Amino acid sequence: RGGVGTTMDDFEKELKGDFLEESAQLLEDCEQSFLQLENNHEDPEILDQIFRLAHNLKGSSRAVGFGEVAEFTHNMENLILQLKENRIPIVESVVSLLLDCNDHLSHMVSTLTNNFNAEFDSVDLISRIVNILENGVESSAQTSLDQEGDSEIEVNETLEEDAHDIFEQQAMVHDKSLVENTDIQIQLDKKQEVANDVQPPLN
User: Out of 67, 79, 117, 193, which residue is the most buried by the measure of CB atoms under 10 Å away?
Assistant: First the structure.
């Protein structure tokens, strides 16, 4: 039994290794297709090729047990399908997102080559894909601008709070200096009074 288990483990590792090796080449081809798409939006063959690559990658990754790769590629495939059906325009921001997705998949494949059990954070990219699928390109771009605006507001508020704190600290130092100067003046006045009391009267 132990021998059979070992053989199955080796077979599974070989399958995964072969998949990762083939996927690296697929993703290189996919990147070139995205770059072609950026310069030639009207060529349906480019999108067909990209869709086939994504579909093959999704099915193969699920078959060998790389669920995270399959799930991420599934979302990417949905976006490509919308582009194929002309439901979403092929604009620079969409191509940029697809290139980001391709880079992320390349990172996943490279990492899995060294560790079959590696885990990945794909939340941000999936969120960007879903946002375009649900709201369209313009709404997605506006959402990004709103998020940038919110970040700028937070930074400005932080700067204002820091400036207010600095002003309060300076005011405290100034008040303390006034108090200390007042105390010194009082002490000087008292010493002068004592000196006047002990000074003999002039004839």
Answer: 79
